[in-house]
C-alpha cells in the first residue's frame, strides 16, 4: 500500500535489548501477518536506492508469478555486493517456510531461508536496480581485534549450523 510508505517510523527504545537481524525481521513479519500485509519491505541501514528503483521493486509485487517468495534489488555490475540489500518478503510464503531461523547470529540465515523456500518450490525474483548502493559490513568496519574475532567466530559457527541443517547442500 503506497500510503503506508509515507507513515512516520515508530521507534521504541528499550535499553539493553539487542535483537539479531533474524529476530528483528521475524518481529516485523509477525506484525505484517497480524495486519494482513501481503508484502513487507526490509533494507540494510547502510544502503541507498533511488526512488525510481525502489518503485520498480514495489511495482513487481503486481506482476510476479505466484511462486515468488522474495523480490530483491539486483545491481547489474556488482550483484553479490548488493544482494538482499532492498527486499520485499511475501508474508504468507515467509511463514510457510518457517521464517528466518533465530539460531543464526549474524551470517548464513539468508542461505538457510532460501534453501527452505526452494524446497517448497518457491523462487526469488530480482529487479535490476542500478542505483542501489551498499556501504558494506558494519561489523567488519569496526577495526578492532575483538570485532574481527567475533566476525570470524559468528561466520564459522553460523556456517557450521547451516551445514548441519542442510547436509546435502554444496557449500
**What amount of the residues lies in strands?**
15-25%
Q: Strand pairing plus helix content: what structural class?
A: alpha+beta
Q: Shape from CA axes?
A: globular
Q: Which stretches are low in confidence, meaning pLDDT under 50 for 5 or more residues running? A: 1-16
| SSE pattern, N- to C-terminal | HEEHEEHHEEHH
Mean pLDDT: 83
Spatial strand sequence of the major β-sheet = 1-4-3-5
> How much helix, percentage-wise, in residues?
25-40%
- Please give the alpha-carbon distance between the first and last residues: 38 Å
Largest sheet entry: 4 strands, mixed
Q: Report the count of strand segments.
A: 6
**If you compute it from the alpha carbons, what radius of gyration comes out, rounded to the nearest whole angstrom?**
17 Å
- Helices, by number, come to 6
Amino acid at each position: 500500500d503506497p500510503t503506508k510508505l509515507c507513515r512516520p517510523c515508530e521507534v521504541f527504545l528499550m535499553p539493553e535489548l539487542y535483537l539479531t537481524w533474524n529476530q528483528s525481521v521475524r518481529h516485523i513479519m509477525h506484525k505484517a501477518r497480524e495486519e494482513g500485509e501481503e508484502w513487507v519491505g526490509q533494507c540494510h541501514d547502510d544502503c541507498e536506492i533511488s526512488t525510481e528503483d525502489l518503485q520498480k521493486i514495489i511495482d513487481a509485487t503486481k506482476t510476479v508469478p505466484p511462486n515468488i517468495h522474495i523480490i530483491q534489488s539486483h545491481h547489474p555490475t556488482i550483484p553479490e555486493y548488493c544482494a538482499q540489500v532492498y527486499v520485499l518478503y511475501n508474508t504468507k510464503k515467509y511463514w510457510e517456510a518457517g521464517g528466518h531461523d533465530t539460531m543464526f547470529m549474524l551470517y548464513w540465515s539468508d542461505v538457510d531461508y532460501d534453501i527452505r523456500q526452494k524446497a517448497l518450490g518457491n523462487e526469488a525474483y530480482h529487479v535490476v536496480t542500478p542505483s542501489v548502493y551498499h556501504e558494506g559490513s558494519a561489523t567488519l568496519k569496526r577495526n578492532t581485534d575483538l570485532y574481527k574475532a567475533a566476525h570470524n567466530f559468528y561466520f564459522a559457527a553460523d556456517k557450521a549450523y547451516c551445514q548441519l541443517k542442510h547436509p546435502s547442500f554444496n557449500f
